[in-house]
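I am still getting used to backbone structure tokens and would like to learn alongside you. Would you supply a protein for us yourself, any chain you care to pick? Start from the sequence, derive the backbone structure tokens from it, and show both lines together. Go ahead whenever you are ready, and we will take it from there.
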Amino acid sequence: MNDPAGRLPPRNWPPLLMFAITLGIALTVVPWYGIVHGYALAAWVAFAVLLSVTELSITCGYHRLFSHAAYQAHPALKAVFLLFGAMALQNSALIWSAGHRVHHRFIDDPERDPYCARRGFWFSHIGWMLRNYPSGDPDLKYVRELQNDPLVAFQHRHYLALAVGMNLGLPLLLGWAFGDIVGMILLAGVLRLVISHHLTFCINSLAHIVGTRPYTTENTARDNGVVALLTFGEGYHNFHHQFAHDYRNGVRWWQWDPSKWLINALHWAGLAKNLKRVPWFKIRRAMLETQFRRANQELARQVSSPRSDELRQRVAEEYERFSKAVTTWTMLREQSVADAKRALVDRWEKSHLPSRLKALEEGLHEQYRRMQLLAAQLGIARV
């Protein structure tokens, strides 16, 4: 925050100059060179490939692997993520993860959330990096296990050299190999970097301002399909903030989440393991809890409505069924875990417990549909 006198914190010159210079080149020199000289096909291919690889190194690596430990990765895969994560020029994985964990821990707190969306679009998108706000100071106590990771520690110690080498050295090498050094630097270097930055920044800004909140209304995070399309699946942000340790963001089969698909492919290839998934019952429970909260809020506003008593009774009955289902599911899960630990589950229970749990999940699915109809009758928009 600003100091009591209303003065802004001092400017953070390294990122400010970097963002300004790269954006200026992307808006002026890149189109000018294209019009006057044109770009080789190899430069466009390198632009697309490097943009994808650097973005996936942030989504699958910095975010889902290092920040949330949503799965475990082979050292070779971690090295790739750290190398191309440095090319994304968003700081070391250690610093990035420290800030992101603080964001989750203190989401929407203007004093402690580094890129708090309640401070406005500009601040959450890029402004938080342009000045030395106290909330942006990395707190490494939240990433102690990453400090003990030799690969993460190596990247952190040599981040500047890796970042310069990947952002300047690699485009130069590709330009020399394909005979278009300037074109390769402009497309695969500068334009790729600017677009990568602002796509990632949209997750902190747009995905906290525009979209739906089906899983929780307790924070500003939103599911935004357009942002997901642009960020390799990271736009399903409401789900992510409710279930941060799930390796998926787009949990539905039809949701665009290439990062999830890549992690699955790496799992099949033996490069990733222990993928964390939230049970579907918990996901549906969160969605129903959100529906009940909205329904009760709307009923409180419709005290004088002719149908309010009838609808209130129906919501109460649905909530009673919901509470019983949650209690039963919790009991069965505890029983299954306890029996498995004692290795006392006989053949009947091995087949019976999963079927009972599945039946509860299906019942919650049907109840979710009924609550959608009730929400429509109450005039609740999908928000």
